[in-house]
Task: structure prediction
Amino acid sequence: PRVRADGCYVLPGLIDSHVHFRTPGLEHKEDWAHGSRAAVAGGVTTVIDMPNTVPPTLDPEALVSKAELVAGTSLVDYRFHLGADPRRPALLARLDPGIATTAKVFMAGHHTAPTVVRDPIALEKIFAAAAIGGVRLLLHAEDESIFTLLDQWQGEPRSYLDYERRRPRSGGISAVARVLELVRRYGTEAHILHLSSAEEADLVTAARAAGLPVTFEVTGHHLSFTDADTRRLGARIRLSPAIRTQADQDRLWEALRAGEVACLGSDHAPHTVEEKTRPVPDAPPGLPGVQELAVAVWTGMRRRWPEEDPDLAATRLAEHLSARPAEMFRLPGKGRLEPGADADLVVFDPAAPWMLSAHDVRSKCGWSAYEGWTMTGRVLTTIRGGQVAWDAERGVFGRPEGRWLSGAAAQDRPRTEITARDPRHAETEAQGPSRGAG
Ligand code: NCD
Ligand code: ZN
Ligand code: ZN
Result:
């Protein structure tokens, strides 16, 4: 098929290193057929999936069985983060990099968290073992006090707005401080997920400037909503860590502008409408976002910094949603547009205004907190492995031929290369200016 690209950016396929596609065990919320369609509709060609499934993926065996379940069902390439098990920290010291190179640690959590690491000794052992095994730890660094407050309300229905008014503002500052102390002690590579507050951004940026191997992720949700939106959206935007104040959001945008953010992630965490409309504390935290991430961030960038050269903005998007995650998560062939790279491309129309409605939502949960948002910018075509995976004009998807990017597979799989001579890409080349961003 011909690919229209006039006036568009052609970006390297986006990498979302933080999705919850819910297989196995939670397929009533999401599955790979729906989740990967949502991904390609949002320009994402590679995802890394989280371990808090049922059962959770806390060891290589569980991870391999998950890979077997997902095989043949995904439109995007994929990898899996392991979950750190407080009862078996030593697993991380001898983890086969062909299976996984990352492990998520839940330092606090709702019942969606598989195994919350509450014991400080277990946490320390996890950091020590990960340093030995060369495993990058991904931290859900949130303070337990948040959940204690909610637990006290057990059986006593409250609105989420009511909870929001009383919620302690500390967020994850003491959890982040503990992480930095352990990184200092063991030299473990640490990546703080869904960082949500100004003081945490300041703390991590200072630690990084002092030479610690620590990075952080910001989600599209924390860049798009503030606690003021709770009045309208209620527990739909209940998220862990919570959506915070305007001042916190402003600081996260500044972190993006300054390049302090390592990567953007969606934290695509769908729950059904029924689950989200239960009274607090039963409405689970998390909302879908893999489809909305790039357009929401683009819309935000153009609104906040209208004077900025759009080429720079597009470069920033490609940097934080493709190049950096490819490097951090060791995804050879991903994250760049050059000969030898995988033929994963997004054709992005930077100017198209459109309103998002529930009808556009591809996630199985069927709703979006962004319904009614007027977006600037639209994903026209997504190409994965040289094949069209999403064509917005015709509204059609490709075939579920996404591959498991296990470390071993990354070394010996055949490459689909981008070359000007390849007729499949010649049309993209010929159709219009590829205002290069990458
Ligand atoms: C996630 C989920 O629902 O799986 N929810 C969330 O609010 N972020 C769990 C998580 O990532 O902590
Ligand atoms: Zn988390
Ligand atoms: Zn998450």
Q: What stands out?
A: Residues 62 and 355 are 40 Å apart (CA to CA).
